Amino acid sequence: MAIGITDRRNFKPIARLLGAAAVLGASWAVTRVMTARAQAQNPPQGQFVEVQGLRLHYTVHGDAAHPPLVLLHGNGASAVEMEISGLVAHAARHFRVYVFDRPGYGHSERPDQGHPWTPDAQARLFLDALRALDVQRPLVLGHSWGSMVALSMALAEPQALRALVLVAGYYTPSARLDAPLMGLPALPVIGPLMRHTVSPLLGRLLWPLMLRRIFAPAQVPQAFKQRFPTWMSLRPHTLQASAAESGMMIWEGIKQRRREGALAVPTVVVAGEGDLLVMTRWQSQRLHERLPQTRLHLVPGAGHMVHHTHTQAVMEGLYDAWHMSQPLVATSSSLAEAALAPVVEIGSARAQRAV
Predict the structure, then answer these.
(1) How many domains are there within the chain?
(2) Cα(14)–Cα(313) distance, rounded to whole angstroms?
(3) What pLDDT is stored for residue 299 in this prediction?
(4) How far is 168 from 148, CA to CA, in rounded Å?
(5) H/E element holding 208?
(6) Does 31 fall in a domain?
(7) pLDDT tens, 111-143?
(8) Pairing assessment for the beta strands 96-100 and 68-72 based on DSSP bridges
(9) DSSP characters for 96-128?
(10) Are 274 and 303 within 8 A, CB to CB?
(11) What share of the chain is helix, strand, coil (3-state, %, to 5)?
(12) What is the rounded average pLDDT of the residues 255-272?
C-alpha cells in the first residue's frame, strides 16, 4: 500500500513535465505553421539594399523629382503599418517617400550575434543605406522607437539630414514596469524557448487589448484591423527584435538624453495629447522644453498611433519641418504651396502648435 502511494506521488512531477512538454510542443507547432502562413501571404512588396552585410527591405513612393522623405516605424511594426496609416499616400503627393523595415521587422534581416541593434547602430545602418541609394539630405520621420533612431541619425551626421520629425517618441528616461517584462523573449536560454512557443500565442491573445491601448483615446481604425498582418509581428525573430528594443529602451534613453543638446537639425515634435503608451507631458513636452529650438505639435484626441488617426496633423508637422529648413533649401514644387496652406481641421479639433 505504501509503495503504491509513493509511486503515485513520484508520478505527479513526471506527469506535469509531460504535460508542459506537450503544451510547448503544440505551441511550437502552431507558431511554426502561423509564421510560415504569414510569410507566404505577405511577400516583400519593395526592394532590398545591402549595407553592413545586412539586407534591408524598403518601398519607394512618389515622384523622383520631389524632395526625399524617410519613414522609420516603431517597435513591433513595419513598413506596411506606415502604409496602412495613410501617411505614405499623403506624403507621396509632395515627397519621394522611402519606407524602411527596420532590422528584424517586415522583411529586413537582423543578425543578432555580437551586434546589439541600439538606436546608434541602426542610425549608422540607415545613414549607410541612404548613401547606397543616393538619397541626399532627406527629411526623416521616426515614430515611437523609430524616433530614437531618427534622433540618433541627426546627432551622428546632422549635415546628412534636412529636417527631423519625431512622432510619439521616448526621450525622457522613466521607470517602465513593462520594459523588463517585454524584454524576456530576448534573454538567453529562456528567450528562444518563449518566442518559439508560448510568446506568439500569448501575444495573439493580448493583441486586441494592446491595440486599444496604443490607439486610445481614438478607436482602432477598421483599415488597421483588416490589413495589418498580425502574425508578421509575432514571428519568433520579430519578437526577439521587439523584446531586445524594449529591454534596452530605458538605458538608451539615458544615453541619448546626455547628447540631445547637440541637436543641430531643424526638428518638429508631434504627439497625441492622450498617448497612454508614452506620456506626452513627460516625453514630447519635456523634450521641447529642454530643446526650445524645436517646434511642438500637440494633437487633441490622439494617442500613440497619431499618424493613423490624425494623419493630417502629422503632415502638418512635415510641412512645418520643411519650413524650418527653408534657409537651407530653395522653395519649389507643390510642397511649398502645401506648406503655406492653412491648418486643416481634423474632426472637431485642431492640431495645436507650440513654437
Answers:
(1) 1
(2) 59
(3) 98
(4) 10
(5) helix 198-215
(6) no
(7) 876 678 999 999 999 999 999 999 999 999 999
(8) parallel
(9) EEEEEPPTTSTT-----TT----HHHHHHHHHH
(10) yes
(11) 50, 15, 35
(12) 96
Look up the pTM and report it: 0.86
Interaxial angle between packed helices 236-259 and 198-215, expressed in degrees from 0 to 180 and rounded to the nearest 10: 50
- What pLDDT, on the 0 to 100 scale, is given for residue 183? 58
Q: For the segment 30-82, what is each residue's pLDDT rounded down to a tens digit? A: 889 999 999 999 999 999 999 999 999 999 999 999 999 999 999 999 999 99
Neighbours of 12 (CB within 10 A): 9
Cβ atoms 46, 80 nearer than 8 A: no
- 24 belongs to a structural domain: no
Distance CA 197, CA 200 (A): 7
> For residue 77, what is the domain's CATH number?
3.40.50.1820
Q: What is d(CA 317, CA 165) in angstroms, rounded to the nearest whole number?
A: 7
| Nearest Cα residue to 167 out of 321, 293, 271 | 271
**CA distance linking residue 345 with residue 195, whole number of Å:** 44
Q: What is the mean pLDDT of residues 292-308?
A: 97
Q: Sort residue 168 into left (φ over 0), alpha (ψ -120 to 50) or beta.
A: left
Amino acid at 110: R
Partners of 126 in the β-ladder: none
277 three-state secondary structure: coil
In sign, the C-alpha dihedral spanning 128, 134, 137, 140 is: negative
Parallel, antiparallel, or unpaired: how do β-strands 139-143 and 96-100 relate?
Answer: unpaired
Give the closest residue to 55 by CA, choosing from 65, 66, 46.
46
228, 259 Cβ separation under 8 angstroms = no
Interior angle at CA 239, CA 236 and CA 241, nearest 5: 115
Residue 26 lies inside a defined structural domain of this protein: no
Q: In which domain, by residue range, is 316 found? A: 42-354
Kindly state whether residue 13 falls inside one of the protein's structural domains.
no
Mean pLDDT within 12-38: 80
Q: What is the mean pLDDT of residues 11-31?
A: 74
Q: Between helices 119-132 and 145-156, what is the axis angle to 10°?
A: 70
Mean pLDDT of 132-156: 97
Grid cell for residue 262: 547637440
**Which run of H or E residues covers position 57?**
strand 54-61
